[in-house]
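[job 0412] stage=complex_fold ligand=magnesium ion status=START
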Amino acid sequence: VNVAGVMSGTSADGINVAILRITGTDEDIRFELLAQSETAYPTAVRDALLRLMNAQVASVPDISRMNFLLGELYAQAVQRAVSKTKLTTVDLIGCHGQTIYHQGESALHLGKRVSCTWQLGEGAITAARLQTNVVSDFRPADMAAGGKGAPLVPYLDYLVYRSKTRGRILQNLGGIANLTAIPAGAAIDDLIAFDTGPANMVIDACMEHLFDKKYDAGGKVALSGRVLQSVLNKLMRDRFFRRKPPKTAGREEYGREYLTHLLQQCRRAKKEDIVATATALTAKSVGIALERFVISRVRPHTFKDYVVAGGGLKNRALMKMLAVEIAPFGLTLKSSDDFGVPAQSKEAIAFAIMAYQTWNRRTSNVPAATGADRRAILGKISYA
Ligand SMILES: Nc1ncnc2c1ncn2[C@@H]1O[C@H](COP(=O)(O)OP(=O)(O)O)[C@@H](O)[C@H]1O
Ligand SMILES: [Mg+2]
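[job 0412] stage=complex_fold status=DONE, emitting structure tokens
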């Protein structure tokens, strides 16, 4: 069947779509990438989204409107990608939606322990516009099964990158940085996966605040600055980096308040140095995570490849710093593209495959990654 996967990540930069032809099931799933597309959110939509993610300002009517609006925008984005293929339509759509809130850890709320997540993008709208069945809202079912609802991409990672002889670490650099480590010959229950901290989110916030730019194109600004070591050392003392996986992060941890916190420590510093420091924060937190929770946990460690995906791959400063961080572990730096999975479409591909599993009443969470008690069929179906 032909399936579209739709992803819009915490960067809130836009919508990635991948169109796949999928055959087989579970661990024998095979797919061919027919087309991909990237559609930036209109500036007004992005600004509104960033406001919604700031819990102090969001209003219920605004959230509700955005939910339906995104359903429309996702339909348009899928249509654009479909028009790049010979197809006139797809059989199924898997749509992650836009996270406006994610609390993976449960905490006491009104007398009950609650963990929760909220993705916008009304599946019924997308289904109606394209006359196609839609699976959306993948995370709640994992949380209902005791998981943190993230990360979900390890399901794809295991399908594509597992190897009998080479342990592989898959690193995604979106707004948040997350990794999946697959030891050589691993079963799906042997995966290690978690969020290592920020990827582009803090860099983007600095760029926006200091340079009025959305991101540090090519990492040029960071390359022209110097890392403020004492600030970096302080930032690295954050409790999040010490916490054992499974763990997840988002705008709740590395959003607006974090930027204020960072800027307070950088008074009188050069703007370029602040961006370089934010970039080093990402690289360093990845390095620490690898050492603490991956390399030292798998003995003897069989990891050979470090495979990067996501927008961070385009930041040369970040990639340079990451190369330094992984050097002690004897890993070879690769791009997801080398494995036939274009770096910017990896997550969209993942949600196409998860939708396909759901449509076939099959599970697609990875309990080793999310901390769930059991496998679960993810998502909700909106029929065409
Ligand atoms: N040319 C580029 N140079 C540097 N960084 C880039 C470039 N293009 C994209 N990025 C970074 O990648 C981010 C988007 O990455 P993406 O993988 O889409 O993240 P998400 O899944 O959170 O949406 C942008 O916010 C930006 O920080
Ligand atoms: Mg994105």
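The pocket of magnesium ion (ligand 2) is lined by residues 9, 11, 13-14, 16 (CB under 6 Å).
[job 0412] exit 0
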